[in-house]
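User: Okay, second chain of the day. Same drill as before: sequence in, structure tokens out.
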Amino acid sequence: MVTYLTARDLEELIRVDKSTIYRMAEDGRLPAVKVGRQWRFPEDAVMGWLGIDTGGAVMRIEHNLRDLVTPGVATAVAELAAAAMGMMVVVTDMDGRPLTPVANPCGLFNAVAADPAVLPRCISSWQKYASAPDLVPRFGPSEFGFLCARAFVRRDTRLLGMVIAGGVAPDAWPPAPSTVRAITTGLGVAEEVFADHADEVYHLAHSEQARLLGLLPRVALLVSQIADEAGAVAGKLSAIAELAERRSQS
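Assistant: Same drill. Structure tokens below.
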């Protein structure tokens, strides 16, 4: 079954206004089909257009997010976003490696992640978000059992990193004992630790979850803009250095 994105979805994803999106659809620069009077955009085709192959692997880029955004700046954005959204937030590169500490962590995450062996499992989990087929942020279950969502940090159409938010309880919470056993086995922690802190997550109504999903791309956009500016400055400095070298050799 084909999944279609709306113009509004694309507006948030590629940071281009709707009128430009419609023009790109009209002249064939953007994968699109017309349904009645409305343009719709096949998600798989858009993924390819954005640099994601059919296997879901993200195209590598020449700039790493770590080269463009300092940990201090990324941490400030994550902390501000986490406080405003009332969720835990972390900024990672496209390999799932965190640029920031987890801001505003829920009690369950704090208790489970106190074991140093859990961090590699977190990174492995965050890596999966990089190749997830959904371009629009959606809440889904994490390896901790609670819900998380992610938005991409971009430069042009290239993916640099992710802003991941979560710690939200799903409708069926706390999990059944068999589910707790599976979660703790996967994380390598004691069931008692999970059970003691299972209620220390964020309980949000569906309407609030939807509102926060609308905010998450804006946080990623802020990090993207910081990366854009840093990349532009780096490009100018590189050009100046190249010019100086040419003059010294002439």
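The beta strands are 4-5, 33-35, 38-42, 88-93, 140-141, 147-155, 158-168.

User: Thanks, on to the next one.
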